[in-house]
Structures are given as C-alpha cells and as structure tokens.
Amino acid sequence: MASNVNPTVRRRRLGQELRRLRELKGMTAEEVAERLLVSQSKISRLENGRRSISQRDVRDLCGVYDVEDHRIVDSLMQMAKDSRQQGWWHAFGDIPYSVYIGLETDAASLRVYDPQIVPGLLQTPRYAEALITGALPETAAGDVEKRVNVRLRRQERILTAEQPLRLWAVIDEAALRRVVGDRQLMREQLEHLVEQSQLPHVTVQILPFDMGAHPGISGHYAILEFPDAADSSVVYIEGVTSDLYLEKANDVQKYSVMYEHLRAQALNVEASRHFIANIAKDYAR
Questions:
Q1: Are the C-beta atoms of 249 and 239 separated by less than 8 Å?
Q2: SS3 245
Q3: Dihedral sign, CA of 270, 275, 279, 284?
C-alpha cells in the first residue's frame, strides 16, 4: 500500500461508528433505508464493513442521524476516503478471500484450528502449490502461481514484520498424515513446520487421533484479534463459495471457549514438535 492505512479495517471501524450513531438515534436499519430510498441490505453491508463506503454515503447518513459536530463528520469522511484505498493484495487481482487478508494484515494475534491441512501462514511454497492445485483442479497455472505468491506475501506477518503476528495453531494429526504432493514434499513441509514452531511468536500444537471427539470436530476456523480496542475480534469460517465472519461478542466468546478446550486436549508444544518430527522421519523412509 502507498500508506499504512488498511482499507478493510477502516471500513470495519467506519461501519461500527455508523451503527453506533444509528443506535444512538434510536433508528432501525429499515427506517434508515426508507429515509434514504435505498435497500436495507445496503445499510447492513455498510455497517458490517463488507462494502466500500463513499463520502456521499457518510454525508447522507450523518444527515439522517442529525450529526451536527463538523469534526465528527470530517473524521468519518476521511475514514470513508481511506477505506477506498487499495491494500497490497489488490496488486494480485481478484482474490476471493481479500476481506480476510485485510483483517489478517492488521491483526495482532491469530488463533487457528485446522483439521485437514497445514495452515497457510506455515506452508512451504511447494506444499502451497500442490495443495491449491489439488483443491482447485480447474484453476489455470497462472492463477495457482498468483495464489501461492499471495500466501507467501501473507507469511511476511510472521517472518519479517517489526511487530509480528502472534500465531497460535492447533493442527489435527490428519493434516500431517495427508500426503499433499509426495512424501518428499511432506517431509520438507513438516520439517519447516517444526522450524516455524520455534519462533517466539508462533505456537503449534498437534491434536492426535487418539484424543477422539473434540470441540473442533465441525471444522476449520480462525479467531483474529486486533491491537486497537475499538476493533472487535472476528471469527472467520472459510466456505466454498462464500466466507462467514462472526463479530458478535457472544459468537466470538463461544468459539474462544472451544479453542481453549482444543488447546487443552492437544499435545503440549514440546511434545507436538517431537510428534511432527517423527512423522517427518517416516516420510524419509
């Protein structure tokens, strides 16, 4: 990006502030939509940060909410302007999970549970390429390369950032046993995973098969937390055609409690490293 402004996070903050102003006014989204002659879904998308907010939208909403303090209006207008900038990921073209990338780029910590694969931030380039090719068999080679490059760029948050992302990953044993590419590639990936787990801001725990049923049995999810207290935590659940972002405090709390149970049932950090290393040795045979 040309500046340190993260457009995704700016949209979220602006949407939260617009929701707060609406609630202070005692209006429903339907009432606001009726006043502005727009759909209620547009108001909802503006407030949840999933849609770009124009300065005209801000001006119109401030008018409906009777915001008379010009400093507040100017601040919101500037946020709207910032939210329309492009993040670094836009240089790679149309990325289906660009909203998530914007959140991850600004997050202070990320807790992820993955039952099937090694998490993206901990993947080697060869593993990422084989994984994307297998998961999306109709994707052109150029698009596979683009996705791999985006993944590697995301990894800068834990490799080169001045304030690195605090990453905590609970990974199911299935992800270590599933042969993506070939056995040599898997050995390299697991050795890389052991290496990364030794970074001071990266924690990796393995959930072995013999732990049986557990709270993460329903599938992958991630919890993102942000350095600014004004930015609420987000639970991210990846889908095939669309993704789900949960921001209500009650939803985030439920997933956080689930994650604590996962961490408690998983092997500790040292035992996890030995577990990964032993499977890597198996691939070398």
A1: no
A2: strand
A3: positive
Q: Which helix (H) or strand (E) holds 262?
A: helix 249-265
Strands 202-207 and 166-172, by their bridges, are parallel
pLDDT greater than 80 at residue 237: yes
β-bridge partners, 166: 109
Rounded to two decimals, the pTM is: 0.77
pLDDT digits (tens, 9 = 90+) for 15-56: 888 888 898 889 888 888 888 888 888 888 888 776 678 888
How far is residue 136 CA from its own chain's centroid? 20
Give φ, ψ of 234 to 5 degrees: -130, 135
**Distance (Å, rounded) from C-alpha 155 to C-alpha 189?**
15
| Long-range pairs of 34-41 with CB within 8 A, sequence gap ≥ 24 | 35/64, 36/60, 36/61, 36/64
**In 10 A of CB 69, how many CB atoms?**
9
Helix (H, G, I), strand (E, B) or coil at 276: helix
Distance CA 194, CA 206 (A): 11
